[in-house]
From TrEMBL:
Pfam families: BPD_transp_1 (PF00528). It comes from Saccharothrix ecbatanensis. The chain crosses the membrane at residues 20-43, 63-89, 101-122, 128-151, 172-205, 225-251, 272-296, 340-359, 371-392, 404-426, 460-482, 507-526. This is Thiamine transport system permease protein. It is a multi-pass membrane protein.
């Protein structure tokens, strides 16, 4: 009698299947993230790399300024984001939808657009506008991350403290604030990470006087051709990023464990809570100030108000500054962002489905994959672009000149955001629905199509829109990789601002205003589509 082959245990079989399905995101991360980053590490460790760079005093000046401005912007984002978090989480007042959309617009605006918006208010740039601009970006991170937990903090403990005679402030500091600490720590780590790797803002507002590790890497690569020095600085930056990611991951795990089952419905503010509501609206008005300033600057000329900058986008700028017209660059941006969104959706949705499947089986691999998918968020886009320049020639046909390279680089940045939007929705799907479909004979693919997809469709559309606007404004990696004959609109804006001439300046501000309008419209649509559990981004 023939013996049957070895059989997989009921638990091992599905787990192995989900692990095999993870090969797609792992392959994507391996080729377009791990390989370029490891190449930079190897180059930085080579002769003339890390040790000489670390021995120079100006390296540590760069590190000190990078960390100092990031810390200052993080504190400012926390202070201004907390009232907004309270308004969104606890208050039932008119206009909260406007507030939610208003704080999200800065987060998805291109960095070069924000830089120019603050340059319209501070023409000479400097440290203060850099800090303000970085905080401007990240109020949404604080409002959403802290607000998401605040909405679930049980009010009864706070009410009990008030009944025992504690002041409103004492009840907040002794009861509410400790409950919010994991979310505040998580938000602070993410904001610090974004501020430390900010590129477009520092490039526009810092100039030659104020440079961070990010802008110095760009300078040494593009202008000085000091590849070993740039690699050494990338390695220093990467070490700092890893440290912040470890701290942020620990805070995020604490936040997830801290989530209680009780969901507190918002209620109308009373007493001193109205002061917090007013503070939140003042923050929103402050966020709108650079936006209004940019629009005004796009219309103001030496001869009065004019749409000359917008009309000039049909051309190539003063004395042929651009290789293509502004409209061609805009169309190229749309095409590139669309391609990047399609790739990011494919990889991101597969990753989210795999993570849900692995989490059901309590696989340690799920935590590892989740962390790996978040790494591109914390690594400098400039570092990635630099890594592509020194590795992608090894792929068939010298991939550095391929039109697919920019969309793939943008997809790498967008994929973690899509995962963070889709994953909470898929995790919220009742497992009994999946089990019932499987019991009736549906394959895993059919179960996902019939059960998960209808419930997650709105979040998938929101993730696609969110990914598109982020890719549309990506500047760090694209500034390295975009071909001269196919630049994106953010790259064109930076080039226009680097050339003299009033027309070039008007074109740059007009292009920024158009990008801002598109971004705002997309955010309004996304907010209507987003599910209540749509993640912290």
């Amino acid at each position: 009698m023939a013996h049957a082959g070895p059989k997989l245990s009921p638990r091992l079989g599905p787990r192995l299947g989900w692990s095999l399905a993870a090969l797609l995101p792992l392959a994507f991360l391996g080729v377009f993230f791990a390989w370029p980053v490891l190449a930079i590490v190897a180059l930085g460790l080579g002769e003339g790399g890390v040790l000489p760079a670390l021995a120079r005093a100006d390296t540590w000046d760069l590190v000190a300024f990078t960390l100092g401005q990031a810390a200052a912007a993080t504190v400012l984002a926390l202070v201004t984001g907390m009232p907004v978090a309270f308004l969104l989480a606890r208050c039932r007042v008119r206009g909260t939808g406007v507030v939610r959309a208003a704080v999200m617009v800065p987060f998805v605006l291109p960095t070069v657009v924000v830089g120019l918006a603050f340059r319209a208010l501070w023409p000479d740039g400097g440290v203060l506008p850099i800090v303000l601009a970085n905080a401007f970006f990240n109020v949404a991170v604080v409002a959403r991350t802290v607000g998401g937990l605040w909405a679930r903090v049980d009010r009864r403990a706070e009410d009990a403290a008030r009944a025992l005679g504690a002041s409103r402030f004492r009840a907040f500091t002794s009861v509410v604030l400790p409950s919010l600490a994991p979310a505040i720590g998580s938000a602070a780590s993410v904001v610090f990470l974004f501020c430390a790797t900010s590129f477009g803002v520092v490039l526009v507002l810092g100039g030659a006087r104020h440079r961070t590790l990010e802008t110095e890497i760009y300078l040494r690569t593009v202008q000085l051709f000091d590849l070993s020095g740039a690699a050494a600085l990338s390695l220093v930056q990467f070490a700092a990023v890893i440290a912040v990611l470890v701290i942020g991951g620990a805070a995020r795990r604490k936040r997830e464990k801290a989530l209680p089952l009780r969901i507190e419905p918002p209620r109308r503010p009373t007493g001193g809570e109205w002061g917090v509501v007013v503070a939140a609206w003042l923050v929103v008005l402050a966020l709108l100030t650079p936006v209004v300033g940019l629009i005004v600057r796009s219309l103001a000329t030496d001869d009065g108000w004019s749409f000359a900058g917008y009309a000039a986008l049909a051309g190539t700028g003063e004395r042929g500054t651009l290789a293509v017209s502004g409209l061609d660059a805009a169309l190229n941006s749309v095409r590139t962002a669309t391609d990047a969104t399609v790739v990011a959706l494919l990889v991101g949705v597969v990753s989210a489905v795999v993570l849900v499947g692995l989490r059901r089986h309590r696989s340690w691999f799920a935590e590892t994959l989740d962390t790996a998918l978040m790494l591109p968020l914390g690594v400098s886009a400039v570092t990635l672009g630099f890594g592509y320049l020194i590795t992608m020639d090894a792929l068939p046909g010298d991939f550095r000149t391929s039109p697919l390279l920019v969309p793939l680089a943008q997809a790498l940045v967008v994929t973690p955001l899509i995962v963070r939007i889709v994953l909470p929705v898929l995790r919220a799907v009742d497992e009994r629905l999946r089990q019932a479909a499987a019991t009736l004979g549906a394959s895993p693919w059919r179960v996902w199509w019939e059960v998960d997809f209808p419930l997650a469709a709105r979040s998938l559309l929101a993730a696609a829109g969110f990914g598109f606007v982020v890719a549309l404004g990506e500047f760090g990696a694209t500034s390295f990789l975009a071909r001269p004959d196919a630049p994106t609109l953010p790259v064109v804006i930076a080039r226009l601002m680097s050339r003299p001439g009033e027309l070039n300046s008007q074109m740059a501000y007009a292009a920024c205003a158009l990008l801002m309008v598109v971004t705002t419209a997309a955010v309004l649509v996304i907010e209507r589509l987003r599910a209540p559990s749509g993640g912290e981004f």
